[in-house]
Write a structure and sequence with these properties.
By secondary structure, this protein is α+β, with helices and mostly antiparallel strands. The protein has three helices and seven strands; from the N terminus they run ββββββαβαα. The strands form two sheets. Strands 6-5-4-7 form a four-stranded mixed β-sheet, covered by helices on one side. A three-stranded antiparallel β-sheet has the order 1-2-3. β1 and β2 form a beta hairpin.
Length: 159
């Protein structure tokens, strides 16, 4: 679990939890501050496995995710969190699949989706604004035409 506080300055930590067989709850095993993380080792980038190692300032810890997919998601979130909250020493990510650090991460995909939605909404608003502008112009033309008609009708009536 990678968690970040909302206090200023933000503090990010990594907490290792364990779920025992037959239980639905998790037990906290160990916790480190993100600044203590030195290396993330995916062990084998060519094989989908849930095992990985984390090297901290004064500790080495072996981890096992529930699935290889969850490991990948954890790495993406961890990498993003490190990029966002660590200014000095960022940990080294080794033996990790390239998609974890590349443009195909779930975070980049989500950001791309949001950006795309914002662009589509902006385009729709612009188009609607243009249609409203044309409708206002047409309304003004109709108003002027109606005034001219009323004036002409008034003149014809009293002639």
């Amino acid at each position: 679990i990678c968690s970040v506080t909302n206090k200023k300055p933000a503090q990010a930590s990594i907490t290792k939890v364990k779920q025992f067989e037959g239980s639905t709850s998790f037990v906290r095993r160990t916790q480190w501050m993100l600044e203590q993380l030195r290396q993330v080792n995916g062990i084998d980038p060519n094989r989908d496995s849930p095992e990985f190692d984390l090297l901290f300032e004064n500790a080495f810890d072996q981890w096992v995710a529930s699935t290889a997919s969850e490991k990948c998601t954890f790495f993406q979130v961890l990498h993003h969190t490190c990029q966002r909250y660590l200014t000095d020493k960022k940990p080294e990510f080794i033996n990790c699949q390239s998609k974890i650090m590349g443009g195909n991460s779930i975070l980049h995909s989500a950001a791309d989706s949001v950006t795309s939605a914002v662009q589509k909404a902006s385009q729709a608003l612009n188009e609607r604004g243009e249609r409203l502008g044309r409708a206002e112009e047409k309304t003004e033309e109709l108003k002027n035409s109606a005034q001219q008609f009323a004036e002409t009708a008034h003149k014809v009536r009293f002639c």
